């Protein structure tokens, strides 16, 4: 059995991958008006009153300065047919918004069309957490649909399947 004394970063990443999550693209706007977006599964609710959520990003991410300076961000919770959107925003470079249908949300931040849910947020705090920054936002507007979410775990994309109350499909 592995103990806390003898695991490496890759092994930790594999263990953390056992916690299946939804997939989001967090969008914002740079000071010069350029749209920015990044795939993140490090998203969670914090509080219902006030309505707060958080996500985190590596300090070394190319887009990190944009999110540090931005006053707003949007959490676009991807639907199960948006794997291509997730993959596009996970890669550095290129015009990620090219051929992606969006609308403008609060503060002009891009909202990706077709998501199962969207949370438009005003950033209220940023904290360092090791090699990541933790961004906390107050939710100011939500959009919800009946679309099924995209899931990720064990290094692969998945669909959510409902279970009966007894745990059976």
Automatic annotation (TrEMBL):
Pfam families in the cross-refs: Flavin_Reduct (PF01613)
Presence of the UniProt keyword Oxidoreductase in the record: yes
Domain annotation Flavin reductase like: ranges: 16-159
Keyword Hydrolase: no
MF GO annotations: FMN binding; riboflavin reductase (NADPH) activity
Superkingdom to which the source organism belongs: Bacteria
InterPro entries xref list: Flavin_Rdtase-like_dom, NADH-dep_flavin_reductase, Split_barrel_FMN-bd
SMART domains, A to Z: Flavin_Reduct (SM00903)
SUPFAM superfamilies: FMN-binding split barrel
Record keywords: Oxidoreductase
Protein family per UniProt: Belongs to the non-flavoprotein flavin reductase family.
Protein name from the UniProt record: Flavin reductase family protein
Species of provenance: Emcibacter nanhaiensis
């Amino acid at each position: 059995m592995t103990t806390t004394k003898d695991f490496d970063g890759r092994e930790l990443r594999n263990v953390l991958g056992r916690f299946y999550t939804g997939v989001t693209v967090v969008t914002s706007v740079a000071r010069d008006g350029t749209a920015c977006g990044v795939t993140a599964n490090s998203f969670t609710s914090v509080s219902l009153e006030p309505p707060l959520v958080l996500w985190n990003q590596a300090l070394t991410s190319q887009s990190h300065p944009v999110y540090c300076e931005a006053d707003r961000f949007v959490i676009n919770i991807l639907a199960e047919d948006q794997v291509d959107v997730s993959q596009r925003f996970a890669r550095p470079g290129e015009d990620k918004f090219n051929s992606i249908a969006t609308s403008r949300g609060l503060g002009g931040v891009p909202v990706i069309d077709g998501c199962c849910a969207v949370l438009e947020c005003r950033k209220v705090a940023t904290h360092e957490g090791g090699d990541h920054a933790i961004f906390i936002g107050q939710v100011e507007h939500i959009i919800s649909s009946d679309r099924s979410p995209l899931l990720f775990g064990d290094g692969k994309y998945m669909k959510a399947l409902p279970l009966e109350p007894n745990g059976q499909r």
